[in-house]
Amino acid sequence: MSKGPGQYAPVDTESPSHSQEGELKNMARPTRKWEVFPGRNRFCCDGRVMMARQLGIFYFTVGLIVSTCALFFYFDCPFLATELTPTIPVIAAVLFLFTMGTLLRTSFSDPGVIPRATPDEAADIEKQIDIPSTTSPTYRPPPRTKEIVIKGQTIKLKYCFTCKIFRPPRASHCSLCDNCVERFDHHCPWVGNCVGKRNYRYFYLFIVSLAFLCVFIFSCVITHLIIRAKRVDFLEAMKETPASILEAIICFFSIWSVLGLAGFHTYLATSNQTTNEDIKGSFSAKRGQDNFNPFSQGSVLTNCMSVLCSPNPPSLIDRRGFVVPDTTQITCSNSAICNLSENNVVNVRHDNYGSTNTENQPLSHNGQKKLPSPSSVTTAMPMGRNAGYQDALEDSSYQQHSKPYPVQHMPRIVPINGERPVSEVPVTACNSITV
Questions:
Q1: Which terminus of the chain, N or C, has less C-beta within 10 A?
Q2: Exactly one of 77, 163, 188, 220 is catalytic; which is it?
């Protein structure tokens, strides 16, 4: 039956069957960003845990703390709770749990990794700092640095050739993890992670609590040996509790380094500096000029509050987000599923303007392809935030981005001859509609 100029093609508005839905669910599993992360990191628990790849010393740290405390709880605590006070095991348990909690929090968290530049951003930066081709012997290429002024102090922003970005102030590139880290302090193999802006407070609490734990266990063990030595000979007391001797040796050799580290980082916190800045002497007197620290808040208390008690910034890398390809072609293995839409849809992702859906235009009645009409190309507003990362603001704050949700389109009635009807009529559930 031939259709006149005012007739429309039938549109299937039925939902897919259960078998068709099963085939849709069996499509390729989406890839999360932590699976394609370019840095040298180890991820666990579907991207929730982020650590360095070298974890041997971290396992040694955990084993040493757990084994020493286990010996103390089993051999010393029962005797001391009976002879002195039952609060000793309680205090030891609180210190142990707090120390392990801060250690794991430091090791398993994102230290403040700065996302690498996208190809478009890297190309734009390269154009800005591109060295022109010249044969002049007096020509000097511009340095790959930028200068900003903070409280009257000139700070240089260095260009990272790996991440293709100008690093924010106080950031540095870790050679072990191969990442640029905000407010980079140092890479600590004992905790198995970098120490930066997002986990420095937990690292500081870890070393301080570990220092208290070492002092407490060492003093309790010595007290245990002294009480036993009053009853029997000192050598006999050592033979009765050989585990206490092992604990005392471990704590004796550990307490000096732990106390020194805690004191050093207390100095850094009160002066609002990092280990990297202190070693390089970034804010010390150079060449007879006063090179003060522009990040200091002016007093010891305000510096400690700023470093240890300020709100923890969110992660910038969105490691559990989904990877969105630049161009995606939607294909179907079942003809029944493909019949839901007669047009092939191409989803093109734009970093700033969402997704654009373009449809193949139908042929007119004389077999010629019509030009696309304005209604056939629709721009879908992004739902949620875009994928990819934007440039850093001047205050070194970034925005997180997640995968935009797919945009669903309603079925559209397309005229066969490419012409629009003169008047609109209500659509009913039938095979054809005649105007």
A1: N
A2: 188
What does the pLDDT read at residue 304? 94
Q: If you average pLDDT over each of 132-146, 175-189, 272-286, 400-414, which comes out highest?
A: 175-189
If you write DSSP's letter for every residue of 43-97 in order, what string do you get?
EETTTTEEEES--HHHHHHHHHHHHHHHHIIIIIHHHHHHHT-THHHHHHHHHHH
- pLDDT, tens only, 273-307: 999 999 988 777 554 456 788 898 889 999 999 99
CA distances from 166 to 158, 161, 173, 180 (A): 6, 9, 11, 10
The beta strand positions in 56-205, using DSSP E, are 113-114, 145-150, 153-160, 165-166, 172-174, 179-181, 186-188, 193-195
Question: Residue 180 catalytic?
Answer: no
d(CA 338, CA 405): 21
Pairing status of strand 327-329 against strand 145-150: unpaired
The number of C-alpha atoms within 13 Å of 340 and in the hemisphere containing its C-beta is 18
- Mean residue pLDDT across the chain: 75
Q: Is the confidence at residue 62, as pLDDT, over 60?
A: yes
Read off the DSSP letter of residue 374.
Answer: G
Task: Please check whether residue 361 is in contact with residue 369, taking contact to mean a CB–CB distance below 8 angstroms.
Answer: yes
Q: How many CB atoms lie within 10 A of CB 166?
A: 21
Q: Which of 64-68, 146-150, 219-223, 270-274 has the lowest mean pLDDT?
A: 146-150
CA distance 398 to 387: 13
Read off φ and ψ for residue 389, nearest 5 degrees.
-125, 145
Task: Let me know: does 434 contact 207? Beta carbons within 8 Å.
Answer: no
Q: Which of 98, 66, 97, 71 is nearest to 224 (CA)?
A: 71
Q: How far apart are CA 215 and CA 217, in angstroms?
A: 6
Q: Do residues 400 and 314 touch, judged by C-beta distance below 8 A? A: yes
How much of the chain, in percent, has pLDDT values that exceed 90? 45
What CA–CA distances, in Å, run from 81 to 38, 62, 74, 95, 390?
Answer: 53, 26, 12, 17, 59
What is the band of 414 on the pLDDT scale with cuts at 50, 70, 90? very low
Buried b (16+ CB within 10 A) or exposed e, 207-221: bbbbbbbbebbbebb
